[in-house]
Amino acid sequence: MSQENLNPFAIAQQQLDEAARILKLDEATHQMLRWPVRELHVSLPVRMDDGSIQVFKGFRVQYNDSRGPTKGGIRFHPAETIDTVRALAAWMTWKTAVVDIPLGGGKGGVICNPKEMSKYELERLSRQYIRQVGRLIGPAKDVPAPDVYTTPQIMSWMMDEFYWQQGYNAFGVITGKPLAIGGSKGRGDATARGGVFCVREACKKLDIDPTKVTYAVQGFGNAGQFAATLMKELLGADKLVAVSDSRSGVYSADGLDPEKLVEYKLKNGKVSGFPGAESISNEELLELDVDVLIPAALENQITADNAARIKARISAELANGPTTPEADKILYDRNVFVIPDFLCNAGGVTVSYFEQVQNAYNYYWTIDDVYKRLDQKMTDAFRNVYENSLEYSVDMRKAAYIVAVSRVAEAMKLRGWV
Ligand code: GLU
């Protein structure tokens, strides 16, 4: 085992430090970008179904709002930590900047295990979170959204609780809502769709025929499921050879049917046991000889320990933080083309931004409007980052940092913060 520091916030700071060095950032700007401007830690007493009260810990981090209201999801996860939320909030800051939407970056989290909670317990927890964090959020302040293990239903309860606090409907306080209460068409698969647009652009640059690629998806939640189907639907990708979820994975050299896999997962709550497939571990999946690897689970999956064994030509990061800095160096030396997380998965927040715009003028777009504008945003961002990677002779992650950090630094300078 290598001695890498796997604290996500230490990693986010290390990535920033490297960008600051390349950009020769002044000390004050650099320091402002190393830490959140604001964060709230809350205790959430929640009545459980058995009548007892359980106290949950929650966080909301507003990392930087110099380019606009902070934006970013809320994660419900048993392994949540303040440093994970800080890292995710930093990455949201770079994400909104790299796709050039007028928002900052933030993130929230609650330490809990939603898989072991009833629907009513989850509702009470979601409302309690807003009772505490409500003072900090709002359409012009900070706008949450879904993340790992939070859903459109949870967004609905949270938006509703904010309504009871304020006394009026402020749909734009939260995104990722269902269509019936101010959601946007196309938000459901936006993260994956944006990532597949990036894969399409990467294939053009690398002269790869996307209809001939094999691919594997690690993580079979919202982003992973849609990525599996959209690679086929949008690019005509040849073969999905493996997918995994938090329990285990399935593999077939002849290819797996993405639609059937999604159906199976929805019915059984897991991918293992899928008919006609062999079982495979999460670790084995990452090391498969595929053209496109799609990490769509959690942080720190590709590290100094396994990076030398990654055989994919492209790694399209739909997860946040799946690759460590040490692994990045190894992948770059081995010519693995990494589409970095905060570029590759920016489709979600981009359509969240579209949702907010629609909420603000209370008029809703067609699905074609959403797809067209998302494609434009992702394609422009990808090409801009790619050009920077050539200009500075750096990998795509450093190039994405160069673009994003420059934009945030410029906003802070113009506002007189630094
Ligand atoms: N949680 C998603 C992300 O990490 C979406 C954030 C949003 O829509 O605000 O990008």
What does this structure look like?
The structure is a single chain. This protein is α/β, with parallel strands linked by helices. It folds into 2 domains: 38-181, Rossmann fold (3-Layer(aba) Sandwich); 190-344, NAD(P)-binding Rossmann-like Domain (Rossmann fold). Helices cover 46% and strands 15% of the residues. The strands form 3 sheets. The protein has a 7-stranded mixed sheet, sandwiched between helices. α4 (119-133) crosses α5 (152-166) and α13 crosses α14. The longest helix is centred in the C-terminal third of the chain and has 26 residues, at 367-392. 53% of the residues are buried. It binds glutamic acid. Glutamic acid (GLU) is lined by residues 71-73, 95, 145, 147, 175-176, 320, 345, 348-349, 352.
Sheet with the most strands, sense and barrel status: 7 strands, mixed
**How many domains make up the 3D coordinates?**
2
Structural class: alpha/beta
**Strand percent estimate:** 15-25%
Strand and helix order:
HHEEEEHEHEHHEHEEHEHEEHEHHHH
Termini Cα gap: 41 Å
CATH class of the largest domain, named Alpha Beta
Give the % helix: 40-55%
Q: In CATH terms, what is the architecture of the largest domain?
A: 3-Layer(aba) Sandwich
What is the strand tally? 13
Mean pLDDT score, rounded?
Answer: 97
Radius of gyration: 20 Å
